[in-house]
User: What shape does this take?
Amino acid sequence: MKNTNWPWKTIIEPFKIKMVEPLGITSREERLKLLEQAHYNLFNIKAEKVLIDMLTDSGTGAMSAEQWAGIMRGDESYAGARSYYNFERAIKDLTGLEEIIPVHQGRAAEKILFTALNGKGKYVISNSHFDTTRANVESSGAIAMDFPAKGALDFDKPADFKGDADVRAMEAFVKEKGRKNVIMCVMTVTNNSLGGQPVSMANLKAVQNLCRKYSIPLFLDCARFAENAYFIKLREKGYNKTPVKEIAEEMFELADGAMMSSKKDALVNMGGFLAMNDKDLSLKCRQLLILTEGFSTYGGLSGRDLEAIAIGLKEVLDEDYLQYRIRSSQYLGEGLLKHGIPIVNPPGGHGVYINARKFLPHIKPVNFPGQALVCRLYLEGGIRAVEIGTLMFGKRDAKGGFLPAPMELVRMAMPRRVYTQSHIDYVIEVLAHLAKNREKIGGLEAVEAPLVLSHFTAKLKPMAEEKTAVQPGGRKIWKR
Ligand SMILES: *Cc1c(COP(=O)(O)O)cnc(C)c1O
Assistant: This one.
């Protein structure tokens, strides 16, 4: 564990580059055509036509030379592979949990866990369920309930731990429903759905107390445990001298189990795990694992993947890495604020969320201000981001029309160890240009949108021009 107490203002990328991949450079003209062909849905754009890809931080990171070396050493034996034992040791060492089950990604862990829990009609409580977690809770017949901290939705007002759970509201709910009807508490660290905001140790402890008192098992959804631990070091009283690894261990000590999408803080492109102490529950989980994922010493992964995860889980706790990591999203956030672009403040660990409702007040929620911004960002700069708003979360009326979602955000996710500061400077420059010309950005209309997970496949088009607010003398909305 290094902790250099870096004395300089400029925080640098703490690595050098030994393998490169060209960016997808295209012209504006080409991108306009591509946008039309993609029906204004960036999930339909080929990655090689994207210059800076900020769609997600999931599985998009760069592995280290050490991880690639591990890939070569991977043991591909069906049962009892050496790579599995390296994987198991790394996770036991970090979490202190006994039963370690590999899975191919986070949602496989969720599917297995909630199927094994078999809580039809019962409740799972959380600071906020991530969308696949919620979907898997609900597909098991249980009901997912979120208890975000007060103030989490006040995007403009910074606070240190906006990812916290509202413990009082949780307790009132448990009392009302009866503890037997609450089968699990899941704390998502960091809180992905609410802007990648961290959870404090104090809040985790309060939630653990509540769970102890009512005998509810507490699991961490720990995709970004290292980023969360580093925020605790930076922001929570009493932790500024504690090594991040110890903070992470303290977080896991509070939990009865954990599930992880290793595509985030294990610094790999694919993988995940489920870990717990409850032997009976783990037995059920392993049976389900064998049914759909694979034998319990590989769980749908190659031996080399297990090896890379074992290495990544250690690398991610390097404090020079974490300093660079958290600083990069902060840097983007500061750059956007300087140009008057409203963001969820402060920036989260894995990216910056732009408040599109506030940025483009002239576009009604049903005309997808977030998606309009995402498309314009691609058109002008070749940058790919993702809408988290009405297109993703809007409920639908009887005719299938969209109803406004509670928020209209655009997430600029930061892949790990992939882009440099000049890439981010470029992103800031493009967004500053959009900010100056924001009233010229028009809304969109849905042409075709399935009722479930519509954002992946929806087709859209620019609003008819007479309906769009163009400033006199302004450019046409989507064409030059
Ligand atoms: C990504 C993520 C998941 C789902 O993991 P996948 O690997 O995408 O299946 C679950 N929870 C959180 C908090 C996540 O960020």
